[in-house]
Amino acid sequence: MSALIEVRKLSRTYRLGEITVHALKGVSLDIRQGEFVAIMGPSGSGKSTFLNLLGCLDVADTGSYRLNGETVTGLQAEALAGIRNRHMGFVFQSFNLLPRSSAQENVELPLVYARVPAAERRRRAREKLALVGLAERAQHRPAQLSGGQQQRVAIARALVNEPPLILADEPTGALDTRTSQELMDLFSRLNGAGITIVLVTHEPDIAAYARRILVFRDGELVEDRPLPARPTDPETQP
Ligand code: ADP
Question: Model's pTM, two decimal places?
Answer without folding.
Answer: 0.93
